[in-house]
Recover the amino acids of this structure.
């Protein structure tokens, strides 16, 4: 067999292997399940490994350098598990460590900030955009930079909402306490006349009903989950790595924290697909140094 034939055969074998390889998605806890749900809707044949770093989350109050280290560590861990693409489904980790994770991995690594920024620029009519997120995301100024690269004339007003992740992680996604906290955070932003609010944390779509009620009619809420799912699909199509047969996909759920709690809330937020949750110990084993 000639060298060209051998190369073509190797390429076909690589594509066949990667077609069946899972997608890797990670977050500091449960919030990334909103991204996973969007990916499952768009790519129902794809298998997914979801990694929730609940033992060290939430990431928002942590130092950016520390979050960056977590992002690289988990992206490498998922790559070593054989995923064909990694989605950093956490705004804090995307803001702090997306570039470093991309440099550290051989497979593509996608984040959530750029898709959210693009959605906001497309949605706003008055070019006054609010961003709510964790302290780390707001401190990084990743959203204002991404938005202004798309529209230099846009005005961006950011606010950290540190307690909202805690509500979601407890499973408290409605009620008077949550509404009061959302109202407190949004009041100064709404006072700036914004017409678009970026939910700059993947936990926040689980509070969409409360946030929409407080924001009122005419305010567009932007989350990056659907945009990220579209980018995953486009990336896999471009490389020829879509899973192309009809066997049911296999999903795995890995958490570093309380697996019973993760299983209970995972079923609430995602659905019956959360059958089993596996415990992963820290530091992560098998990660390249």
């Amino acid at each position: 067999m000639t060298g060209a034939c051998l190369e073509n055969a190797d390429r076909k074998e690589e594509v066949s292997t990667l077609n069946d390889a899972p997608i890797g998605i990670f977050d500091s806890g449960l919030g990334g399940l909103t991204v996973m749900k969007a990916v499952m809707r768009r790519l129902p044949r794809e298998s997914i490994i979801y990694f929730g770093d609940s033992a060290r989350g939430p990431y928002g109050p942590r130092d950016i350098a520390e979050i960056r280290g977590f992002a690289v560590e988990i992206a490498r861990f998922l790559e070593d598990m054989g995923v064909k693409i990694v989605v950093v489904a956490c705004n804090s980790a995307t803001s702090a460590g997306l570039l470093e994770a991309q440099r550290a991995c051989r497979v593509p690594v996608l984040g959530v900030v750029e898709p959210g920024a693009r959605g906001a620029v497309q949605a706003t009519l008055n070019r006054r955009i609010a961003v709510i997120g964790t302290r780390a995301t707001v401190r990084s100024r990743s959203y204002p930079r991404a938005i202004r690269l798309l529209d230099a004339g846009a005005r961006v007003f950011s606010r950290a909402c540190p307690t909202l992740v805690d509500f979601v992680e407890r499973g408290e996604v409605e009620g008077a306490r949550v509404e009061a906290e959302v109202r407190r955070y949004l009041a100064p932003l709404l006072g700036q006349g914004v017409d678009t609010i970026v939910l700059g944390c993947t936990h926040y779509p689980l509070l969409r009903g409360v946030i929409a009620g407080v924001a009122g009619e005419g305010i567009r809420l932007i989350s990056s989950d659907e945009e990220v799912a579209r980018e995953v699909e486009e990336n896999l199509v471009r490389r020829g790595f879509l899973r192309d047969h009809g066997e049911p996909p296999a999903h795995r759920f890995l958490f570093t924290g309380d697996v019973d709690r993760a299983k209970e809330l995972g079923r609430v937020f995602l659905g019956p697909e959360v059958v089993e949750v596996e415990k992963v110990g820290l530091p992560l084993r098998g990660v390249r140094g």
In short: Strands lie at 23-27, 48-52, 85-88, 109-110, 128-133, 155-160, 196-200, 220-222, 252-255, 278-279. The chain has two domains: 3-111+226-279, 114-223. The domain at 114-223 is CATH 3.40.50.1860 (Rossmann fold).
